[in-house]
Amino acid sequence: MLHLLIFATLFQLLLVQRFAALLILSLTVNQVLAQSPGCHCSIEGKVTSANGSLGQASIRLITPKRQTITNGEGFFSFDRLCPGEYEVLIRYQGYTDQQFRCKLDSGLHLAIRLEETTLLLETVTVQAQREAAGAVHLATSLDKTELDKARGGNLAESLRDITGVNLLQTGPTIAKPIIHGLHSNRVLILNNGIRQEGQQWGSEHAPEIDPFIATKLSVIKGAAAVRYGSDALGGVIIVTPPDLPRAPGLTGELHLVGQSNGRQGTASGSLAGYARGIGWRVQATGKRGGNLHTPQYFLANTGLREVNFSGAVGYHREKFGGEIFYGRFSTEIGILASAHIGNLTDLNFALQSPRPVYPVRFNDEFTYAIQSPRQKIAHHLLKANGHLQMGQMGKLTFQYGLQANSRREFDQRRSSAATDRAALDLQLITHTLDVVLEHRPIGPLQGSVGLSGLFQDNHNVPGTGIRPLVPDYRAGSGGIFVIEKWIKNTFELEVGARYDYRHLTAWRFDRNDQLTRPDFNFHNVSGTVGAYFEWSDQLNFRSNLASAWRAPAPNELFSEGLHHGVAALEFGRADLRPEQAYKWINTIQYTNPKIRFEATLYYNKIDNYIYLNPQLPPELTIRGAFPVFNYDQTNARFWGLDGSLRVNLGPAVYYTAKGAMVRARDVSHQAYLPWIPTDRIENGLTWRVPNRLGWQDAYLSVNSLSVARQRRYEGQSDYAAPPSGYTIYHLDAGLAWPLGKQKLAVHFSIRNLGNLAYRDYLNRFRYFTDETGRNFILRLNYFF
């Protein structure tokens, strides 16, 4: 405790000193600038591309040296400039630089459009690219071009190619992203700018987001609680849809995806236009798949159905604007039949069997039929946002979000009529409100202050006939933050602080069937100090130290019984305390025309870490025999390293490598923690085929993924020992044909090329089955 107190005290003193220094410096800058008569000119503008606004683009004035970055909507500004000639340089990763001179005698507005570069280094297939220089928090992104080559999977599968991101799976159809060993409530997802709020506490509760709405997926791996909220201990995932059109015309896309494994088909289309100052977009996706198969057998009851749609309309002017967005995500997912066992003898047999053991009513064959156990989820999102230029004050943005989440889980019951009745029926309503003021730059100083609020009402729909796993509850939270950035030439310093308060009231029956109403109040402060150094155009370094916290979730406090989706008994603890994390993350990047290298080293100290701990032996209930898991709490330490390398071997061939390792330890009991990602490394070789016969952007790629066995675990602490390591191979190829103003792109992939039978430690159904086998995927993308 003494070292923690010293650490926290030093951290707070550092924050106070930084804020004081920034305040004094900003006052000094104001005074100096005010004493410079005649330097009243300004340059402002917006940076865009064919895909919309470019946030985090680097804008430099060569003489005198001034630097800034664009905000999320592509806007930038320099003020208090003296009359004269200026040289302007605009840079953004993946786009051709623009450099020009301009004469300034008053105010100047620039509309800058960057074109995607045609150099080999930027146009070949890349699994992930870094954001433009200048941000303390490194955001690794998949842009639209990369997403189009991987369409058809869920959100987590779309992110798996980003270094440092793993998947927590429940069978072959449900996956959640893991960032540096943390997942679920510790990873915040922003869907179109709104904090995604569903029943994300469950390991088999995948994010209710259609990846087809996104033109960019970004991952911030550091603790980002100051800007985004108290739960962002592991990181933040940002789902960015395309900007609404702001020029007359009609554009659209059509995506068709077919997969051999599960005989799955996906269709998604969008249409966007602009007229009379109003931009709009509509989008819809449909997906259907049947039973998946491993190299040796089908996986009974692993089909899925999904129908999603969204629409947005907006009106924007230079000084104000607003948008309204509505989206609906709905899916029905079959749960692997072999995970639900009737008695202890059968469960023990299933745990030792080399292949799944199914109840009699399930056939080991292909079908599109979905039976219980299954999930039916619907998620509605309504968003309204706006922005207003406040003159010398800066820019005010505000957004309101309304989310309605319906989760129904169906278990196997004795009669067919009962099987159609949900065993878990949860309705969650969430209201969020965010208001942020970005003040105008004061010399090299720029920043923002913001308020956020959240209210939730969770309700168990009557009629299940089963004691609720999670009780009815209401929760409310509020937060206030301030972030200031000092940007000077090749250096950036960021300091921020945030205060959050959360209240939770639950209505639950105790073991004596007496209604109780426990109340909880949590509050804490988060802070961040970070720096960015650009030693040269080729080499830069980022370092960030941040604190974050998370209040216990209702499932961790109150779970009591069968969790149907994972076929396990889960029990919470009402005495859990909030988690407190301190994460230090460092990233170095090196880029030249032949080599691109990036490495991230991090250390995350989490006190009162809450985790799901296996409790042996299994338990027999009137519903069947199930593994048992308890929510426990301890002090934990996470540290790790992930990195990527790309080497151009010739004018049309390049090699890529990515690796990640996570180490986690229960320091209170000097033991290993369960469900921690294992070491992995990926290697790839890509050949860019020369353009000919009218085609362009053709490529052929072969990749391997090697995953080690998890040897850092406590013996006899789980229902099955971690499986062996494995290496699987993938093949990808594609090309595009310009058709006038339209374009048709074709991408072909083979997953698990060698049809290897293996099991993954991070799949909660590894107790019962192998992973899926070879899968042929064909994607057709048409743009008009």
Characterization of the model:
The protein is mainly beta. The protein folds into three domains: 1-35; 39-115, Sandwich (Immunoglobulin-like), CATH 2.60.40.1120; 128-414 and 433-783, TonB-dependent receptor, beta-barrel domain (Maltoporin, Chain A), CATH 2.40.170.20. The protein contains eight helices and 41 strands. The strands form five sheets. It has a 22-stranded antiparallel beta barrel. It has a six-stranded mixed sheet with strand order 9-10-15-16-13-14. Strands 1, 2, 5 and 8 form a four-stranded mixed sheet that branches.
Q: Topology, please?
A:
Blueprint: H1 2-34, E1 41-49, E2 52-53, E3 58-61, E4 66-69, E5 75-81, E6 84-91, E7 98-104, E8 107-113, H2 120-123, E9 129-130, E10 139-142, H3 144-148, H4 155-159, E11 165-170, E12 174-179, E13 187-191, E14 194-195, E15 216-220, H5 225-228, E16 235-240, E17 249-259, E18 264-275, E19 278-289, E20 304-316, E21 320-334, H6 344-352, E22 374-389, E23 395-410, H7 416-419, E24 424-442, E25 445-460, E26 472-488, E27 491-509, E28 515-516, E29 519-534, E30 539-550, H8 554-558, E31 560-563, E32 568-571, E33 579-591, E34 595-621, E35 624-648, E36 653-666, E37 680-689, E38 696-707, E39 726-739, E40 742-751, E41 775-783
Parallel strand pairs: 1-8, 13-16, 32-35
Antiparallel strand pairs: 1-2, 1-5, 3-4, 3-6, 6-7, 9-10, 10-15, 11-12, 13-14, 15-16, 17-18, 17-41, 18-19, 19-20, 20-21, 21-22, 22-23, 23-24, 24-25, 25-26, 26-27, 27-28, 27-29, 29-30, 30-33, 31-32, 33-34, 34-35, 35-36, 36-37, 37-38, 38-39, 39-40, 40-41
